[in-house]
Amino acid sequence: MKFFYLIISFLLFTGFAVLAQPDSNTQKQLFLDQSTILLKGSGKWRADNPAYKRTDEWSVESYGYEFEKGIQESTLKLKITGYIPAKSMKVIFWDGFYYWNHHKNTLAYISVNVEGVVTLGLADSIGVSFLSLLLDIINKKGLIEYHKDIQFLQNDQLQSISYKWQQERWMKNNEMIWKRE
Questions:
Q1: Pairing relation of β-strands 44-48 and 144-154?
Q2: What does the pLDDT look like over 137-172, one tens digit per residue?
Q3: pTM of this prediction?
Q4: Which of 43, 130, 152, 171 has its CA at a distance of 20 to 30 angstroms from the CA of residue 31?
């Protein structure tokens, strides 16, 4: 019985993506469709930081996703920002982009943060309203952390859930709800 629940949990977690993975042309079109939705309006999204501390002058009150069109249709730029109210300052934490990797025939992601940490990723699955990426986060010493980011897009709301590979399993790292600005 325990095995049965494990299988059901796995299928729900992956959104049945393993069983119904669309072909690469369909996946590319799904990414292009999602890009159009993400870029709608200003292309800016905001999420409150649940760990915000008013008493800490460097605490980030909210995070931002800033999407822009890339150099061609299958590229999408993304800046991840934060707002520090005590300093009346917006900071850019990550600068990167999504692109269609023609060699691997899938969506890829690359970004760099302010400390020189690099993130490289490939889509695990793409659906009509979700995207799952497997990411290697490489620090300046060359050490790698493995992450999985899942995004659910619906109307003017984006839910992101981040997992980190620890102790031989995916452990939830954080979850945020982003609203269109």
A1: unpaired
A2: 999 999 999 999 999 998 889 999 999 999 999 999
A3: 0.84
A4: 171
